[in-house]
Every structure is written in C-alpha cells, then in structure tokens.
Amino acid sequence: MTESNLARVLQDDPAPAAGDGEAFVVFTPSGRRGRFKLGTPVLEAARKLGVDIDSVCGGRGICGRCQVDVNQGSFAKFQIESRSDNLTRPGAQEMRYADKRGLAAGRRLSCSARLVGDVVIDVPETSQVHRQIVRKRAEARVIDIKPILKLHYVEVREPDMHDPSGDFRRLCESLREQWPDWGIAQDVTCDLPVLVELQRALRKGAWKVTVCLREGRRVVAVWPGFREKIYGLAVDIGSTTMSAHLCELATGEVVASGGVMNPQIRYGEDLMSRVSYVMMNPGGEVELTRVVREAINHLATEVAAEAGIAREDIVDLVFVGNPIMHHLLLGIDPTELGGAPFALAIDTSINLKAAELGLTLHPDARVYGLPCIAGHVGADTAAVILSEAPHNQDAMTLIVDVGTNAELVLGNRHRLLAASSPTGPAFEGAQISSGQRAAPGAIERVRIDPETLVPRFKVIGSDLWSDEPGFEDEIRRTGVTGICGSGIIEVLAEMFLAGILKADGTIDGAAAARSPLIEADGRTFAYRLTPEVSIVQNDVRAIQLAKAALYAGARLLMDKMGVDSVERIILAGAFGSHIDTKYAMVLGMIPDCRLDRVWSVGNAAGTGARIALLNAEARREIETVVRRVEKIETAVEPRFQEHFVGAMALPHATADYSNLAAAVTLPARASGDDGSGGGEGGGGRRRGGRRGRGVE
Description:
By secondary structure, the protein is α/β, with parallel strands linked by helices. 27% of the residues lie in helices and 21% in strands. It is built from 17 helices and 29 strands. It starts with a helix and ends in a 33-residue tail after the last helix.
C-alpha cells in the first residue's frame, strides 16, 4: 500500500449513491455530510447531521445568526460540483433581511435557502454556537535573544547652507558616530518607504529620532523622538488552524497571541483535497492564497489590538507551514506537490517584503520563511527541529508532529531522518460519528470503570468530571456536543483496557452481558458513552487506519536508522499537546518507550518560528541543519505496508511493548487476535488478565 493509496483510504469519502430527488450536501469545517430531499432547508439538513449552526428566531429569517457561504467549484474528493444556484434563489425573507441588516456577498440564510442540487456549505465562525477553540498558545521557552532588528536613538546634525548633504547621509553618519561599537556598516541602505517618511520624522522629532536597523546595514524605519519597542510576528500556518504570536523583539516577550481556523478548510479538510481543488478549478490557487493572506492580516490586527499597538508597529514576520501551506502563502501553485516526485518550487529560506504578500504591516516590514526539507516535510518540521534540537542531542529521539498529515523526525547529533505519514483527519474528529473539533461541550477526557464499564468524562469548558457534583450545572449552557480528538484517543484506549475492544479493534459483543452500554449496531456493536455520544465500529476503524499510518512511518524511520528502539519520544503540535502520552502508546500510535521519556511539547512549530524571529543566528543554524536531514519517502518504501498492517492491532500485532506493559496492565491477547481480522500471526504475550486497569 503506497502512501498515496493510503491517503485515499484515509481521506476520500465521495458522495454516496444518489436517490431520486436528492441532493448531497457537505458542511465545512465540520466535514459532516449526507443526502437530503430536494427542497430541504439548509438549516434543517445541518441540524439532522449535527452541524453547529446558530439560530434563535425559529427559522423565520429574523435573527440572521444562521448565515452560511456556498463554496464554488469542483470538489473531486466528494465527486460533486458545488454552485450557488444549487440553492434556491433568495426569497422574500432573505431579501427583507438583506435590505434591513445587510448580507455579505455570497452569504445566505440557511433557514431560508433550500437544496436544489449538490453543494458544499461553509459555516463561518460567527454562525457557530460552539466555536472552535484554537489551542495554539505560546509555549514557555527560554530563547537566546539575538535580534536581527535593533533600535538606535540618534541626534542628527541639521542641514545648513554650507553642507549640501542629504538627510539620509547625515542620518547614517550620526549612526556610525554615536554607535561606534555596534558594527554599523559603512554602506547603510534603505528602501523607498523610509525615504518617504524620513524628512517628516527628522523635523517632527527636532532632529532626534529612533532608527530601526536590520543587521546593522539597512534602515527599516525612522520614528521621531525616542522609541524603545518594536514588534515581530511568528505565524504557524497549519492545515486546520493558524496561530500568531506577537513578540517584543528586544526582550522576546510574547505580548499577545491569536488563532483562527485556516479558511482554506472550506476547500478541503486535508492537503490533498486542496491540491485537488486547485487542479479541478482553474485559478483555484489564487483564491486559496487570498484567503490565507487575509487570515494573517486578521491575526495581525487581532494581536496588535490586544497588545494596544498599531499593526504598523510590526516590522518583522516569520512564518512556518507544511509545503502546501508554504507554497500557497507565496502564491505558488501546489499542483506539483500532489503527486510523485512531490517537487518543491523552492526549499531554501525565503526573505521578502511583507507588502509583496499583501500583508499590511509596517511599510518596510520583511517576511522570513524557514526552509522546507523535501516533499511533504516542510518549514513547520524545520521549525520543530529548531525548537527541539535533536541535532544537538546524543539520545536517539523520535519527534512526531501529530496532525492531518503527520511529520516525523528521528535522530540525534550524528544523523537526522524525516518522513511524512498521511494519518487523515480522524484524530481531529472528522470521520468520527460523534466527532467534532475542539469546542465547548466536546468530550476531551474519558475514564471507564473496568468492572462496571461505566464511563466518566470531562468536556471542554469545565474542570469537573461528569461524576462530580456541579458538573451538570457547569455544562448547562453548552451541553455535551460530541467528542474531540483527545477524547477519541482516550475512550478507545480505555475501551481496550476494559475489555470492550479486542486487540483487532472489534467491539466485543460479548461485553454486552457485562453492561447495557454495549449496544447492537446492525451487524456490529457500539459503546454508549453518553446519551448523545456513541462509539461505533467505523469510528474504531478510522482511528486504527490513522494510528497505523503514524506508527508505520515511525517504524520505517527506525529501520532506516538501524535501531529497534528509541530513547525519547516527543509529541508536537497543538493536538499532540492534548494527548495523554500513555493512551497514545496504549493504542499503538507511537513505538514502545519508557513512559517517563515520552512527553508533549505543544506547538513546537510555533516555538521554532518564535526562535527564528528573535534570534538571527538561529535562522542560519536551521538553514544549515535542514540540508543534513535525509527525507525518507514512504510512498516508495515496500516495508511501509508491512508495518502498517501490523500496526492495525492494539497496540500492535507483534511489536514488543514491554515498557508500556511495565506501567499499564494490558489485556491478554487471545490466540489469533492480531489486528488483521484474519486470525493469523498472533502477537506477543501480554501481562494481566482479560480486563485491564485504567490509566490515571
């Protein structure tokens, strides 16, 4: 099974066969989809699918909270053509609302618009009751500050009739005279925006100004009087979410942080879907570039407002992202990354003017992009390497950046390997029957009593467990809305430890004799977690596919490195930071390792972007290190399939998990229970009885 074939297994979900008089509708960013009779209101379809759309007026077109956007174009993943005329034309209610309150171009009221054809509907954040929580905070980290931009206060000699020299010449002379030990170049230059404002600044400041210099040789800005702070922005462009950290460049202090859903998600949940959109819709890359640049401008405005500064005070920006996000921000068509040999347009670092990318920061602000490594291992992975520095360690370290497309790095100071693995969106709640992205009301922690099989859980927005006093009062406003990625990992691991799940991933119908929470679900069984949320067999299979792809990628790197074990495992990424590492190992997402040497580091890509923003030497360091990284292309490695098949079992069909077994009582494996479904090649022995104990 090649990586591209595996990606199709994990990600493709075309429209089901049409019935007479039916339309297929897909909602983003949730990914919920289904068929409905023609004439069904969009809001009704959304509610039947469990899509989060606000409405308080009972569908009378009064409140306007149920606004949606129609995505235009061909969507190969769903095998449909989405057009605005696949909804009914605006009726009297919508026209009346638009006249009185206004509707943005292309917006529709979902209570009034009805289905007349196949369509992809985007639910904007403002229309969601339970809005996505973008959990990409700035991780605490001591960073060696070696700024690329520095401030210099100078007093400039005034012009007179006997000295015809220009203001910029005298400014540069003053810099060298008054800051003799700061390595200011003899040939200091500037761009036009500086010259445009120079004379006004000098005269307004009575010839006393603060100069911002880049690397001692280029004037970026001149402000009248004394100024002591300048700011930079570190941006992580994830395929699902984007984050930005506003930093004071002299001290490194993070003065504000912000996050948004990546607006490109409306064109596809995963990277290959977005490439497909570009291929199927001429000029589609222009639209994807436009929306991601708008999102960065929005983030810049948001964090600047939070910090109480003007957006024009941001003089530097560093961005990281996977190769497709990287190329789209730059306006490069990502089509070549959609198939072998996955050719990058550029793999070196990027230095551009912010204005070239349509970013409205300081007029002379610059943008630095970290180098990509190869194929689908991009600048975000380079940032993770910069953050975690495996190239400076003796210990054999595995770094896993968990996401829709997982990136893996293995090595130490002697050698570094990297690969990508197409895990798909299941870890983030997509393709799960009750799954959702992180939002208030989503289950994020689960424990199951191994004797009674009764669960208890936590939801986002409350610190209480469901069996604690006051829980119902705390969640009264949100209720229980579904289960997010970390909750999915925990509930499946707990089901396995409690004997509800077999090692091959099937829900054990025999467990129904132990608890009424095990319910028949057609030819299979389901586990009732709450009245609203059940775990069905297809949910388990979706996670098995994703975790097997993740493990197979890691194991392939270990083969290439010639090692059978690793000394440290680091889980990176916003999602990785919310996974309990023990449960990740119980499911077999990662290889066996001592649990005290497995930890999460949060958004390491964002941390790496901050390091590059604040330390000029770090930029040169990572530019050198990435050229040492050996990219392993899983798509052409025959052993990837072998590792994938073995990793379908929980935690694995044959791999030794002795470190895990020393800390957690794993269920004994029945003969032939190897995860393949075929009953051959049973795995190794497991400690403990059939029922395992939970992990606290």
